[in-house]
User: Fold these one by one.
Assistant:
Number 1:
Amino acid sequence: MPSRLISFKTFFLLALAVAAAWLILNWWRGPKVDTFTVERTPLIQTVVASGKVMTPKRVEIGTQITGRVASIPVEEGQSVKAGQVLIELETAETGAALNQAAGAVRQAEARLKQLQSLGLPTAEQSVVQAQANLDHARRNYNRTKQLREKGFLGESQLDDARKNLDVAESQLHTAQLQVDTNLPRGSDVQLAKAALTQARANLAAAQAKEGYTTVRAPVDGVLISRDVERGNVVQPGKALMQLAPSGQTQLVVQIDEKNLSLLALGQKALGSADAYPDRNFNAVLSYINPGVDAQRGSVEVKLDVENPPDYLRQDMTISADIEVARRPSTLVLPPETVHDIGKPQPWVFKVENDRLKRVPVKLGIRGEGKVEILQGLQAGDRVISAALAIYKDGQRIRPLVTDQRP
């Protein structure tokens, strides 16, 4: 019995020694840690933004006169052609003004025609008659004067003959003036022509106002909004409809200002609509707003869609991945393995001879789930996650290779 007890104690002590040795060995070898390998792969850096589908130079439709809406022969969302009727106003008032202006033109034309056809001949005939009257009055005066000098007539009779002569001369002068005013350059003709010009201008204004009662589409496009109904009284200066012209389609997105230095005109992008997330389309960066929205800290950017898919709609919410940099082959790591990644001196824990070594690195572009390593590491080097903050420089570990991101 004592010998069996001794054998059991010996076995227990031996097992305890083995376990202690194993623990000491594992402590000396360090903990098991997942590592990530520096790889050489293609890398694309993108800036992701969201925004809306918009057509450049949207047209706001309104009226140029005040009036009551008689009809609206189009609906919101309808495609229209240039010149197509969009809004019609009541025309009773403008029609009456048009008829009045047309009547004034006819009256002015008749007045000018009367002067040209009858005024001048009548005035010329009056000159002939006045000249004849003057000749008769002059002869009568001369005869009366001679008889007065011989004493056959009194002074009063000579005075009457002189008055008749003066009147005849005045009448001839008036008739001659009447001829002058009826000549093509005369004042009456010029006044008649001026009146006709004014009447025609009033007619043109009335015709234009009549034309304003019909609002037409200035270009081909799609009506994306309508804020008017039949019977409404509308006034100039108020937008009643909004027309998106056919042609160029753009994406208008907001980019965080911290990414402004990465953007350049001509960069390619891949767009997708929130309503159709499984479909993509190509776009090109065409405009960068020179100003920054101080409230949101963002910059407005526009991208041209050369071949827009048929499912795109005005004001549709979209996302755009703008390609700002591309590397056909470069060293990469998951960004979660880099310490102080947003600071001036980033670094990693590199595994070297089963020990951790703090190595400074120089970073390049960042892609989806990857960051470019420009200096500090080589292909095949292994590093650990930056989330493992408990480990120290020089610490021994047992590295495990993993393909999963930390």
Number 2:
Amino acid sequence: MGALDHIRVLDLTRVLAGPWCAQTLADFGADVIKIERPGAGDDTRQWGPPYFTTADGVATREAAYYLAANRNKRSVTVDIGTPEGQRIVRELAAQSDVVLENYKVGQLQKYGLDYASLKAINPALIYCSITGFGQDGPYAARAGYDFIVQGLGGFMSITGEHDSYAGGGPQKAGVAIADLMTGMYATTAVLAALAHRDRTGEGQYIDMALLDVQVAMLANVGANFLTSGTAPKRWGNAHANIVPYQSFEASDGWIIVAVGNDGQFRKFVEIGERAELADDERFATNPARVQNRDTLVPILADMVRTRGKHRWIALLEAAGVPCGPINDLAEVFDNEQVVARGMKVEVDHPLGGAVRLVRNPIRMSATPPEATSAPPLLGQHTEHVLKTLLGYDDGAIGRLRENSVL
């Protein structure tokens, strides 16, 4: 029994932010019906390679990008540009608790699928719109892309190596964090709206914007600026106020050393056979190390290169010096803690074999999220949904297919 198995979600989103929200709700048991374009589907279905390969070695056209954000859903193909397709979506909305969409501002209004139109059919509906810049303001009509939002929202101004170092300059995150965090904030908003509806019976409209989320998730860095008026700089993998608190290259890979006090610094350099550094007045205290980081860090870098990363980690952990490796993804999924926590799951795929996915990280004692079904094939559930929810017969479905509505 899932926490949300009494909830139906009509998912009109594609790519990442909206599908990520919908997948999270589906993991909790919600019946998520994903509406896709006939013949094409979600853009990310084609965003490969890599693609899923069946048990007998046949490469499919199911891209890993699509697989990452669409498990536990049902796929229904509908051309919402046709009157018949719009009618189907309205009929499904009448039987849904939540609608998710990420079309451009005002685009669904011409199809009669905007909030006002669907609220008239289902007053208790929770309708969540996800856009790049929100429903109002001078940027509302712009298309929103995660990369652009990372730059516009200030994230890239604090991410990347310091300008004075080789390779310095702004850097985006390795994953689409504005999309992913918007998906998570949207999930929270939907759950809050459902809780409100449980008490009042009232649905509501949710306006989510990637730029808003990117600004909000600056967290303490944003608060630092609002408090001081000083824009922060990029420090790469180093720390503005603590030294050494950064990555170092060992003889066979990279490690992170996060020295938090002078005692830990002494242990670090003693292990590195450079104990004299802890007694040097330039480095004996953290304020001194910050002031003299340009002198100290190259010395430490040479010291760390004398051993392999696993040896360094074993020695530093034994001494109580905070540290860790910088793993590639092969090392991540082989990591004993990741394995113990079951972060990799396998789900049977309709084309044969099992698809490997990353587990929802939430642990709950009574209603844990689960990966129960693979990301659906395009239109896999069209006939079943139309028959069981809307009462369409084979003849009606056949006519819709003949007219390219499905």
Number 3:
Amino acid sequence: MTTRVANILNRYPETRKSDITLQIKYWQVYSGLKSNFVDLTKLYSLERLTSLARARAKIQNEYKLFQADIETRRRRRTLEEEEKEAQMLDKPSGLATSC
């Protein structure tokens, strides 16, 4: 899948800054999506957004290929920092009692 995502990022620059655009283009190229509508039962066989986003992040962050524009990278970095902070604040208190 990483090779396919890299191919999409290379051929369609608009997919570099939007995971939704990447998902739609991936479905069009590799899953034969022809219309703007998806049969809900077909969702079970289509690639998931999370998998495509992880592949895109690996290509852009580790391999430094097909980078998004500066504003998109800045926004993603800010969202990542906010999510990390929210996860740290949302830890269980550890006050479990035993019987």
